[in-house]
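user: At home tonight, take the chain set out below, taking as long as you need, and be ready to discuss the fold:
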Amino acid sequence: MSAHVHSSFYRFVALSDPEALAQGLRDRAPAGVGGNILVAAEGISGAIAADADVLEGYEALLAEAIPGGLAFKHSACTTKPFHLLKVHCKPEIVAFGVPGVSGLPNAARPDTHVSPQRWRELLDEPNVLVLDNRNSFEFRLGRFRGAVDPQVQNFRDFPDYVQAHAAQWQAEGKRIAMYCTGGIRCEKTSAWMQDQGLTVYQLDGGILNFFKAMPEDAAADWQGECFVFDKRIAIDAQLQETATTAAEVYDPADPDDAWRLARARRLDPGA
């Protein structure tokens, strides 16, 4: 680990008192930890950063607080990603916007997770459509080879895109291999997509896990950089921060991107 380390995590698990959990995570956070954590009845997600020894202690506290523990994905920091720690209690840990859809595990459904090694095979298999489950500005910055951009500006737009294309994909015999940054969006949508009659695979742990697991092969399958939702802006396939700025990521002609760019500049005037 470098002196300052970024850590991302999520887990879909039923939490009986998310408000109390959120307050406990605020109260017990050590000095020097920054980031954003979301807690809901369906689970927890977050991105935090701190010096390595401080981070390790807070990760241990987080893992102990969540039934079944947590897995953490680490990447290096040149820029300090966060200045403050914010812990929020929300209706969902990732806002999909479809009533009744939760990312909670369901043992009655097929497991859709595939390893980074299996993912590489799927990229070359016939009748597999590789679907990017992120926002369009993220796709523009970097993507897996052959991936399709659903051209959505927010995750809540994704269901409409899938429903508009599901019948065609079924008629063509397409299997859907989808990915996102850390895996959380795919976790939320996989069961719902199965309900649309689709055969679905999701990259376990997302792009970040692929980069970690396949450091020598990632460059052959990944094109460009990976956007990260903090002050670093982007990382490469070796999980290293790049020189890309927010102004290079967002399209100011698009209202959603213009809002994101203005927000980035408020949070970090040098963005």
